[in-house]
Design brief:
eight-stranded antiparallel barrel; 20 helices
Length: 1147
């Protein structure tokens, strides 16, 4: 047979299964009887079902044709009309169905019920060997349905198509579920009946046998229901295996009564008269071999009970019985090709292209090393694949290329079914295998054949491919696992090309393509591109050397669908150039490499990058050493660091810069801009310093850093980590740093190298940092570690250092530490310095001697020193507390009073305070000429004039108490107004962020509770965003146009457009539909629709301490500082009220 007959056989079977349905449609009585089997009682055939006769006419004609006249395409074409007619039943009007049925239920279920009924009857009738196996596996089901409404009781035929794929990964799952095997009420009778039906369908010799005393004792052991039945079922394989006289093999099946530990169980006892390892050495004879450490003659049984794992018993037939624990038993049956044939042809013909095999081996057994594994394996030995042109082959080119004898290859493959791991090909972890063949076909080399069977939620995929190598000039190409794919799907509703089954044969793209280039020293290198079909991902890397002077590297990935599964693609590509002649940049710096990157529908994940600073993620992304050799790790880093995101785009530059010659400091830098759905700027950097030389790096410092500026959120973040750094080749140096800043609604600033002062509460989201530390020892004993930190915030400076020592010998140990932590507040000036020192000598865990000092220095005036000194020797403990004022006096005097009004006036007259704001909602209708640079401001016709300053907040509800720590001279509340020609100008306030501690007097507790920055008025904006035209400038004119219709003789009269219709028409005119309005964010802008969500500034309310009742909102008090001033007034006599965020109060 040829290679299409396997698929033809499947199509023929579907046609045979559907034929009874078409025949019943031709016979009303048969159709009525069929409907009654489905639970529907009708006196006549519904009209939509009568249409099945005409729809299936082609199918009956194809079935009546001679086998040689049938074609696969013709059979498929005959199936499609019938399937379409079945699905059309549900769309017919209710009047087409008799009142004796539940019309809604009938229309919803009849198509599926009819298809399932005829297919199940075909499987259990014509294809009973396959059908009974499918019923045992729970795929084919017969379910008794009770009467309901207008539907009679009936036996429903079901086919659980998704279990076909699950059968390959968990073969017994369908059996467990359909027979309730692990429930409290397993269906043992149905299960044993289905097993017996499979055995009967296989044509095995069945007989009853009487249990001998040893078997009866084994079956009845521990029984709570009395002795076991004395009869069992015997399966003889003698005739099936072709065993010679005097030899026998088979299985004995018996039921074991329930015990206290399990319910009723099925026991299988294999038997054979062959000795262990006995087998025929003649390849032309059927042979049976038994191997392992189990003795069948002494008793061997597998017990399978509902809800329990398979159990092995052995040695129960010994005299006296003695339990044994065999670890392996295996039976191997080898079947040679038919007598006189060297091989058995599977596909093709013996004298032309074919797939044949030498012999088949069937193995079965159990292995109990660890978890018990029962397995069956089918081995196809010496598969022979031959490609040979026939004598009448018209393709002379292929005939000349292949030669008269063609090409051939041999390989072996095995399919194993395991109770632990399910189906898999031998030598692999699943149903995918790779088999070396070593073929050469002209310029192509076929290294291996790949086979794969992949189950999925929709069906199965059978892949047949090859690993092919070839050469095209200076380029060598390797394509891995490219070939064909036979895809079987089970659509819902069942409208496939074979009814409930949809089968397609198509090209399978390679899982990977390798390239090697060798152009006689001009261009050398290579790369690899792989395809991950499950993720819809193409990724690869390439490295080329041009004249051995420039090294070009490229790596990237393309995803063919977005993370949410929707249609779309994303792209990410990095390209770098290195190893060229260094380009001097001045001051000893040279440019050693340059590159770029682009991303489409890609963003960057700053959290992943931040976590990857310690594990070398940046080294993978920035100028990687070997992108081809490290392609898997490189692609994983790319996919994690730059995830897909619809509407986001990346554009970046890369640079490698060195300092000194030879290079002592190397910097890999990248600047990447994200735009589209959001705007962010990413900066990546790796700095490596090797001093005094790379060969003798006594000082080795490697820092990896990243920074992100989020323009939408108004934040900036920088993180840096020391990695793989050391001193003198053995003293490790570690540490990390971070910066967090906000420049939008909530400005803030924190910079820390090595951490923060223990007394300082870090802001939310600030990472925990490692101290900048050096271990001045190469081991753990002795151990000397020094660390330090430095930090700056908007109003503090923090620094500290610590050192710890440990050493032990002969059961004694000494340990100690010394350090200090300093917190300096800038305004008003104040500092706190904590210090500590400790030294202890121990014997084992017992203290022998310890001296400790800890205290605090606070200043500047008064300068106060306090602390405690402790001394311990053995069990004696002495402590001395001290508290002394080293420098007395009042705190430093405040600076001279500041005239804030003068400062404000000076800021308002500065040119930088004034700006022109163009309207974002009203584009110009005309192009404006650019003006030459000038110090004068020119107001845009559609714009507004704004003035802002950062000296002092305006329009406050409380007085300004202080100005940067200095007293205020003169005015304490400020506002800005404007007038033109004596008439006041309308204006709106413009807000900015101010630090309240710089303007209002606060206690230390209030400083901790108050926001670091608050949004207050900083200026105002003059003008309006509305389009206004002065009445004197308006000129009345008639807007008229003439409609011209081609082909009409008469000329239409002019039409005058009413003024009320002009705004409506303008929204659909040429200007409104201009391309500029359909790109970027303009696509989603609407002047009519209100924003879906708005971000409001934090609001505060004063509420009673008891009951939480909020007081009426205070006029003019909007910020925390203003509300707190009112709170202080209310609590002047007694603390009765508190200040809470408005969102915490009940509405």
């Amino acid at each position: 047979m040829n290679d299409t007959e396997l698929l033809r056989g499947l199509i023929d079977d579907v046609v045979l299964a559907l034929a009874p349905l078409v025949e019943a449609a031709h016979e009303p009585d048969a159709c009525i009887a069929l409907l009654r089997e489905l639970g529907w009682a009708t006196a006549s055939v519904p009209a939509p079902l009568q249409a099945l006769a005409a729809a299936g006419a082609g199918l009956l004609d194809a079935l009546a044709a001679e086998p040689g006249e049938r074609s696969g395409a013709g059979l498929l074409a005959s199936i499609a009309p019938l399937v379409n007619a079945l699905q059309a039943i549900g769309t017919q009007p209710d009047s087409a169905f008799p009142d004796s049925v539940d019309i809604a239920a009938f229309k919803a279920t009849i198509a599926r019920d009819l298809l399932n009924h005829v297919i199940v009857e075909h499987l259990l009738g014509r294809r009973y060997r396959i059908g009974r196996w499918l019923k045992l596996a729970g795929i084919v089901q017969l379910v008794a349905q009770p009467a309901s409404g207008r539907r009679l009781a009936f036996t429903q035929r079901r086919i659980d198509w998704p279990r076909v794929g699950a059968l390959l990964t968990d073969p017994v799952a369908g059996f467990r579920d359909s027979h309730a095997w692990i429930s409290a009420a397993p269906q043992r009778a149905q299960a044993f009946g289905d097993i017996a039906a499979v055995i009967e369908g296989a044509g095995l010799d069945l007989s009853y046998f009487k249990l001998d005393p040893g078997q009866l004792a084994f079956a009845s052991a521990g029984s709570t229901q009395g002795p076991a039945q004395a009869l069992g079922v015997r399966l003889d394989f003698n005739e099936t295996l072709g065993l010679q006289a005097g030899s026998e093999a088979g299985l004995q099946l018996l039921l074991r009564p329930a015990t206290a530990q399990r319910g009723e169980a099925l026991a299988v006892l294999p038997f054979a008269t062959l000795g262990a390892g006995t087998a025929s050495t003649d390849d032309s004879q059927i042979s049976l071999a038994i191997s392992g450490d189990a003795d069948l003659a002494q008793g061997f049984a597998l017990t399978w009970a509902p809800g329990r794992a398979l159990e092995v018993d052995a040695g129960f037939l010994r005299n006296p019985p003695a339990a044994a624990s065999p670890t392996r038993l295996q039976l191997d049956l080898r079947v040679p090709p038919p007598a006189g044939d060297a091989e058995r042809v599977l596909l093709g013909a013996a004298d032309r292209s074919r797939l044949a095999m030498r012999s088949v081996t069937l193995s079965a057994g159990v292995a109990s090393a660890g978890a018990l594994d029962a397995f069956v394996e089918l081995g196809l030995e010496k598969l022979h694949l031959a490609v040979k042109p026939s004598a009448d082959d018209t393709d002379s080119f292929m005939a000349s290329l292949l030669g008269p004898d063609g090409i051939s290859a041999e390989f072996s493959v095995g399919l194993r079914l395991s109770s632990l791991s399910g189906f898999h090909l031998s030598g692999s972890g699943g149903l995918q295998g790779r088999f070396p063949v070593g073929l050469r076909l002209g310029p192509l080399d076929i290294d291996a054949v790949t086979l794969g069977l992949t189950p999925n939620a929709q069906g199965l995929d059978l892949d047949v491919g090859a690993s092919v190598r070839g050469r095209l000039g200076p380029v060598r190409v390797l394509a891995d696992a490219t070939g064909l794919r036979l895809a079987a799907r089970f659509p819902d509703p069942p409208v496939g090309n074979l009814g409930p089954l949809d089968v397609g044969l198509g090209f399978k793209p390679p899982s990977g393509i390798g390239l090697t280039v060798d152009a006689q020293g001009v261009l050398t290198g290579g790369g690899f591109l792989f395809h991950d079909e499950a993720q819809g991902l193409y990724a690869g890397a390439m490295q080329l050397s041009l004249h051995e002077r420039i090294t070009l590297k490229a790596f990237g990935l393309i995803a063919t669908r977005l993370p949410d599964g929707s249609r779309g693609y994303s792209l990410l590509v990095f390209i770098t150039a290195e190893d060229f002649q260094p380009i001097p940049l001045g001051l000893g710096f040279t440019l050693l490499g340059i590159g770029g990157m682009v991303g489409v529908n890609r963003s960057f994940d700053q959290d992943v990058m931040r976590q990857g600073l310690r594990n070398g993620t940046l080294a993978t992304l920035l100028f990687p050493r070997d992108p081809v050799g490290n392609a898997p790790a490189l692609i994983r880093s790319l996919a994690a660091a730059f995830p897909a995101r619809r509407g986001s785009y990346l554009l970046g530059l890369l640079a490698r810069i060195g300092w000194f010659t030879p290079t002592l400091v190397l910097m890999d830098l990248a600047l990447i801009l994200e735009f589209g759905s959001r705007t962010r700027l990413l900066a990546l950097g790796r700095i490596s310093a090797l001093l005094p030389s790379a060969a003798n790096d006594l000082v080795r410092l490697n820092m990896e850093a990243m920074g992100v500026i989020d323009f939408d959120a108004g934040t900036a973040a920088v993180d840096a980590v020391l990695v793989d750094s050391r001193l003198a080749h053995k003293f490790a140096i570690t540490g990390s740093a971070a910066l967090r800043a906000g420049f939008a609604s909530g400005p803030s600033f924190v910079l820390a190298v090595g951490g923060l002062n223990p007394h300082f509460a870090p802001p939310a989201g600030f990472p925990a940092l490692d101290r900048v530390a050096i271990a001045l020892s190469s081991g753990n004993n002795p151990r000397l570690v020094c660390d330090a930190y430095f930090a700056i915030t908007s109003n503090t400076v923090q620094f500290g250092a610590h050192a710890s020592l440990y050493a032990s010998a002969a059961g004694f140990s000494v340990e100690g530490d010394v350090g200090f932590d300093v917190l300096v507040q800038l305004a008003p000036l104040h500092f706190i310095a904590d210090y500590h020192a400790r030294l202890q000598l121990k014997r084992g865990s017992y203290n022998l001697f310890m001296v400790e000092l800890a205290g605090e220095l606070e200043g500047p005036r008064p300068l106060r020193l306090s602390g405690k000194a402790s001394f311990k020797i053995f069990w004696f403990h002495f402590s001395v507390h001290f508290d002394a004022t080293l420098v007395s006096g009042e705190p430093p005097p405040l600076p001279d009073a500041v005239d804030v009004l003068a400062q404000l006036k000076q800021a308002l007259v500065a040119p930088s305070a004034w700006r022109i704001e163009r309207s974002a909602d009203h584009p110009h209708g005309v192009a404006l000429r650019s003006l030459p640079p000038s110090s004068a401001l020119v107001l845009d016709p559609l714009g507004r004039l704004s003035v802002t300053q950062q000296v002092v907040p305006l329009n406050t509800a409380r007085d300004i108490d202080t100005f940067g720590g200095a007293p205020v001279l003169g005015a304490r509340r400020f506002a800005v107004t404007a007038s033109m020609n004596g008439a006041p100008l309308a204006s709106t306030a413009r807000a900015a962020a101010f630090a309240p501690a710089q303007y209002f007097t606060m206690t230390d507790d209030q400083r901790l509770a108050a926001p670091a920055f608050e949004t207050m008025d900083a200026g105002c904006v003059f003008g309006s965003t509305a389009l206004l035209i002065d009445a004197p400038q308006s000129v009345a004119a008639t807007l008229g146009y003439r409609t011209v219709v081609v082909g009409e003789a008469a000329v239409s009269a002019p039409y005058v457009l009413p003024a009320a219709q002009l705004p409506a028409f303008s929204r659909s005119g040429s200007a409104a539909r201009a391309p500029v309005r359909q790109v970027g964010r303009a696509r989603f802008r609407s002047s009519v629709a209100a924003p879906a969500a708005t971000l409001q500034a934090p609001q505060w309310r004063i509420a009673a301490n008891t009951g939480g009742t909020a007081l009426p909102a205070l006029a003019g008090a909007a910020t925390w500082s203003e509300q707190h001033a009112a709170l202080s007034t209310l609590n002047r006599g007694k603390a009765l009220y508190q200040l809470l965020p408005a969102h915490e109060l009940l509405a």
